[in-house]
């Protein structure tokens, strides 16, 4: 055990220096969570968290620092992508062919783009969530490998629309047609639930406790790309086919 | 809680810095007599020299230094500059707001000192707040005018108030986790927002007599003030310009928090440049949600709509029942549409024909006023590097005047 | 005067533009002699510097509280406080508790049934019985 004075000095030192030491701070928030394991998991709804410090604009790059404690040498915080092992880097979306848009969709898309606001029915673990910009989501599960402040892009949507028009996917819309970004706000938990488990002819009751934790998110924007943007990104216009997605107007 | 410091009282009373000026430009010409160095302050009597202590002894020197430090802390009405680097609260606030690293914590500490706490313009946030206020109102007004070119002026005033009014800015400071100091002083942690509070029992809404407005006949009670004249004579929210508060007076927590947010905007602009300031504005102010259609308060929508149609050479608006139910029951519902020729301008439902007509006219007017062009650009977007050529923004005829 | 403006205040949507971390302060209390604080003492010396470095947005305070169990308290932007007792816990478990406090929003725990809460108006409008033609059955 320490002597009291040593501990005092230690703690006062900590109190003074803790926040100012904390400098190599945010760049490593980029912590690239969507790893290979997640890629293999059948849930693909949120692919690459567009990691790299969500606040790049006003980035909190380390401020002046006097001393780096020795502990930081042992677990180096990754600063660039090179510091991260290949298996843990985010998976870039790979597309074998350019986006194909039918002529009729190209003709109708300006109507959808021009009418704001938009909604999107994003699917996570095959569950639909109807989202508009600014919504607060509490996922029904704790999402692994995300940190608060991360920005994710939902890439699986079954419907995308405005007041009078809806683009329905069959079963999903190509992720290059829209952008839906969400930010992880934190982790919430439910109040403790106690369930009494009883068995027949027995006075003993068992108490099952559960207190689940859930990831909360905020939808940053829901945006439909305009035809010009699609063409700029290399979309190819093709003839209509029977099962090609269509924009439905409200009847 | 802060202890009362007798030395500080006496120093403020005796010091030549106690002045009665209040506006910024007046401060700029007054010489500052504040010395913030680790050296002994001017007022302190030369004590160590006579005693002749051993300057080699580190223990003695440490005590001397800490005594000086304490004395220098107590001497000034706001925390010394050196204290900013030692404040955990301040560093945490810097990181929490993702402020640019080019913005030093010392400046952040200065934005937290209100003019009521430290009347010295070199150490309070008044100059930064003036700059930040101008930036905030400029960015907001250009956004509103380009995004909604047809908004009536009164609604623009209300929207400006909603985006950058003191209430909103105070709410933002609270959501940023900025704590308020109980009372200002040099020994307070610089991470607290320091200001002198209003004395209890003061009527904060009392009309001040020394109104600094340039408006002629401002004191004539029954003189009509047109909305247009508010652009010239009043502030950006359509309120008459108030004279600055007297130097000895405190400010409310709301005013102090709003001044802090403005000062922070100004300091981001000064230290990190225009793009960072613009991003700061977009991320913290424009990202807040405001439903502009809730800001309208029409008194006679049907008459306004008729005037509008006459001005725009539309056909006269006609109200027609499109659907109804239970006319003879206790709860009838009428759905009335307003048509101009073949075009339906608006629709509304109500429990009586008049109510439904009013609502229909209301929705038609809101549909007109809330027109928003696609892909709007604001003039300040031309300041970015590699901006595409400017396309003129839509400028509307203006609101309907009856 | 044809139309008046009504004064309101914009509503905050944390995370849409800037993201403000909701936990603003963590207080670590320990006892120097108590056996239940042994893990806490190890945590304070070994893990806390790293934790502080990774979370610059949180103000950390370490204070002794002799004769009591060790406690972590979190102060939140909304003015509430959450406390977790960490007696007899290992440093790794204490770190988990600190992470819980760090990620929490500070609100009271609520049981919610709907995953999405929105302050926006319905995008497609509300169904009305007075519009549209009657459909054949």
UniProtKB/TrEMBL annotation, chain A:
<dbReference type="GO" id="GO:0005762">
    <property type="term" value="C:mitochondrial large ribosomal subunit"/>
</dbReference>
<feature type="region of interest" description="Disordered">
    <location>
        <begin position="37"/>
        <end position="70"/>
    </location>
</feature>
<dbReference type="GO" id="GO:0003735">
    <property type="term" value="F:structural constituent of ribosome"/>
</dbReference>
<feature type="compositionally biased region" description="Polar residues">
    <location>
        <begin position="52"/>
        <end position="70"/>
    </location>
</feature>
<dbReference type="InterPro" id="IPR028909">
    <property type="entry name" value="bL21-like"/>
</dbReference>
<dbReference type="InterPro" id="IPR036164">
    <property type="entry name" value="bL21-like_sf"/>
</dbReference>
<dbReference type="Pfam" id="PF00829">
    <property type="entry name" value="Ribosomal_L21p"/>
</dbReference>
<feature type="compositionally biased region" description="Low complexity">
    <location>
        <begin position="42"/>
        <end position="51"/>
    </location>
</feature>
<protein>
    <recommendedName>
        <fullName>Large ribosomal subunit protein bL21m</fullName>
    </recommendedName>
</protein>
<comment type="similarity">
    <text>Belongs to the bacterial ribosomal protein bL21 family.</text>
</comment>
Automatic annotation (TrEMBL), chain B:
<dbReference type="InterPro" id="IPR036389">
    <property type="entry name" value="RNase_III_sf"/>
</dbReference>
<dbReference type="InterPro" id="IPR000999">
    <property type="entry name" value="RNase_III_dom"/>
</dbReference>
<dbReference type="GO" id="GO:0005739">
    <property type="term" value="C:mitochondrion"/>
</dbReference>
<dbReference type="GO" id="GO:0003735">
    <property type="term" value="F:structural constituent of ribosome"/>
</dbReference>
<dbReference type="Pfam" id="PF22892">
    <property type="entry name" value="DSRM_MRPL44"/>
</dbReference>
<keyword id="KW-0689">Ribosomal protein</keyword>
<dbReference type="InterPro" id="IPR014720">
    <property type="entry name" value="dsRBD_dom"/>
</dbReference>
<dbReference type="InterPro" id="IPR044443">
    <property type="entry name" value="Ribosomal_mL44_DSRM_fung"/>
</dbReference>
<dbReference type="GO" id="GO:0004525">
    <property type="term" value="F:ribonuclease III activity"/>
</dbReference>
<dbReference type="InterPro" id="IPR044444">
    <property type="entry name" value="Ribosomal_mL44_DSRM_metazoa"/>
</dbReference>
<keyword id="KW-0694">RNA-binding</keyword>
<comment type="similarity">
    <text>Belongs to the ribonuclease III family. Mitochondrion-specific ribosomal protein mL44 subfamily.</text>
</comment>
<feature type="domain" description="RNase III">
    <location>
        <begin position="90"/>
        <end position="179"/>
    </location>
</feature>
<dbReference type="GO" id="GO:0006396">
    <property type="term" value="P:RNA processing"/>
</dbReference>
<dbReference type="GO" id="GO:0003725">
    <property type="term" value="F:double-stranded RNA binding"/>
</dbReference>
Automatic annotation (TrEMBL), chain C:
<keyword id="KW-0496">Mitochondrion</keyword>
<dbReference type="GO" id="GO:0032543">
    <property type="term" value="P:mitochondrial translation"/>
</dbReference>
<dbReference type="InterPro" id="IPR039927">
    <property type="entry name" value="Ribosomal_mL43"/>
</dbReference>
<comment type="similarity">
    <text>Belongs to the mitochondrion-specific ribosomal protein mL43 family.</text>
</comment>
<dbReference type="GO" id="GO:0003735">
    <property type="term" value="F:structural constituent of ribosome"/>
</dbReference>
<dbReference type="GO" id="GO:0005762">
    <property type="term" value="C:mitochondrial large ribosomal subunit"/>
</dbReference>
<dbReference type="Pfam" id="PF05047">
    <property type="entry name" value="L51_S25_CI-B8"/>
</dbReference>
<keyword id="KW-0687">Ribonucleoprotein</keyword>
<feature type="domain" description="Ribosomal protein/NADH dehydrogenase">
    <location>
        <begin position="32"/>
        <end position="105"/>
    </location>
</feature>
<protein>
    <recommendedName>
        <fullName>Large ribosomal subunit protein mL43</fullName>
    </recommendedName>
</protein>
<dbReference type="InterPro" id="IPR036249">
    <property type="entry name" value="Thioredoxin-like_sf"/>
</dbReference>
<dbReference type="InterPro" id="IPR007741">
    <property type="entry name" value="Ribosomal_mL43/mS25/NADH_DH"/>
</dbReference>
<keyword id="KW-0689">Ribosomal protein</keyword>
């Amino acid at each position: 055990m320490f002597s009291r004075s040593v501990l005092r000095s230690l703690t006062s030192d900590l109190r003074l220096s803790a926040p100012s030491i904390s400098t190599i701070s945010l760049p490593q928030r980029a912590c690239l969570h969507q790893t290979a394991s997640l890629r293999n998991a059948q849930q693909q709804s949120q692919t690459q968290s567009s990691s790299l410090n969500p606040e790049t604009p006003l980035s909190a790059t380390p401020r002046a620092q006097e001393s780096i404690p020795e502990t930081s040498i042992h677990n180096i915080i990754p600063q660039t992508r090179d510091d991260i092992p290949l298996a843990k880097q985010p998976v870039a979306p790979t597309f074998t062919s350019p986006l194909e848009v039918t002529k009729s969709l190209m003709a109708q898309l300006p109507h959808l783009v021009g009418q704001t606001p938009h909604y999107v029915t994003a699917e996570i673990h095959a569950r639909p969530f109807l989202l508009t910009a600014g919504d607060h989501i509490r996922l029904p599960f704790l999402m692994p490998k995300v940190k608060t402040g991360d920005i994710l892009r939902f890439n699986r949507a079954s419907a995308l629309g405005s007041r009078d028009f809806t683009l329905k996917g069959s079963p999903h819309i190509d992720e290059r047609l829209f952008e839906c970004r969400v930010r992880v706000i934190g982790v919430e938990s439910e109040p403790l639930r106690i369930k009494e488990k009883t068995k027949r002819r027995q006075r003993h009751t068992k108490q099952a406790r559960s207190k689940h934790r859930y990831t909360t998110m905020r939808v940053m924007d829901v945006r439909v790309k305009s035809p010009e943007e699609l063409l700029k990104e290399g979309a190819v216009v093709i003839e209509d086919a029977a099962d090609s997605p269509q924009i439905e107007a409200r009847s | 809680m802060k202890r009362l410091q007798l030395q500080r009282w006496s120093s403020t009373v005796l010091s030549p810095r106690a002045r009665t000026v209040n506006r910024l430009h007046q401060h700029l010409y007054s010489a500052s007599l504040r010395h913030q160095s680790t050296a002994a302050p001017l007022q302190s009597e030369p004590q160590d020299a006579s005693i002749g202590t051993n300057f080699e002894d580190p223990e003695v020197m440490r005590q001397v230094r800490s005594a000086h430090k304490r004395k220098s802390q107590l001497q000034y009405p706001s925390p010394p500059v050196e204290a900013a680097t030692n404040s955990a609260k301040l560093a945490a606030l810097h990181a929490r707001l993702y402020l640019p690293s080019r913005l030093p914590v010392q400046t952040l500490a200065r934005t937290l000192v209100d003019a009521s706490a430290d009347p010295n313009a070199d150490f309070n946030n008044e100059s930064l707040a003036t700059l930040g206020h101008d930036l905030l109102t400029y960015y907001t007004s250009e956004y509103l005018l380009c995004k909604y070119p047809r908004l009536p002026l009164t609604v623009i005033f209300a929207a400006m108030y909603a985006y950058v009014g003191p209430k909103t800015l105070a709410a933002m400071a609270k959501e940023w986790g900025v704590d308020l100091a109980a009372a200002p002083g040099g020994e307070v942690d610089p991470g607290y927002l320091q200001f002198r509070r209003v004395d209890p029992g003061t009527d904060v809404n009392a009309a001040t007599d020394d109104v600094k407005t340039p408006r002629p006949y401002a004191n004539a009670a029954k003189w009509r003030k047109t909305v247009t004249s508010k652009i010239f004579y009043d502030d950006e929210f359509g309120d008459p310009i108030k004279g600055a508060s007297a130097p000895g007076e405190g400010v409310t927590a709301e005013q102090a928090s709003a001044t802090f947010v403005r000062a922070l905007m100004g300091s981001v602009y000064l230290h990190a440049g225009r793009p960072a300031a613009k991003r700061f504005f977009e991320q913290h102010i424009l990202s807040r949600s405001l439903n502009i259609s809730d800001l309208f308060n029409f008194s006679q929508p049907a008459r306004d709509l008729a005037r509008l149609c006459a001005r725009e050479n539309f056909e006269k608006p006609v109200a027609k029942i499109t659907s109804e139910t239970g006319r003879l029951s206790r709860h009838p519902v009428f759905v009335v549409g307003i048509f101009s020729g073949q075009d339906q301008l608006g629709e509304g439902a109500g429990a009586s024909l008049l109510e439904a007509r009013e609502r229909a006219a209301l929705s038609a007017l809101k549909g007109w006023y809330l027109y928003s062009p696609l892909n709007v650009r604001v003039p300040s977007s031309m300041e970015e590097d590699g901006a595409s050529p400017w396309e003129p923004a839509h400028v509307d005829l203006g609101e309907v005047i009856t | 005067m044809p139309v008046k403006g009504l004064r309101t205040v914009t509503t905050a949507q944390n995370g849409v533009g800037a993201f403000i971390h909701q936990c603003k302060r963590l207080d670590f209390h320990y006892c120097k002699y108590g056996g239940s604080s042994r893990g806490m003492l190890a945590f304070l010396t070994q893990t806390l510097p790293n934790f502080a470095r990774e979370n610059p947005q949180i103000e950390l305070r370490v204070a002794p509280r002799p004769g009591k169990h060790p406690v972590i308290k979190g102060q939140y932007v909304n003015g509430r406080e959450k406390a977790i007792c960490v007696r007899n816990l290992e440093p790794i478990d204490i770190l988990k508790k600190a992470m819980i406090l760090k990620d929490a929003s500070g609100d009271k725990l609520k049981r919610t049934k709907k995953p999405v809460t929105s302050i926006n108006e319905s995008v497609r409008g509300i169904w009305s019985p007075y519009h549209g033609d009657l459909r054949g059955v």
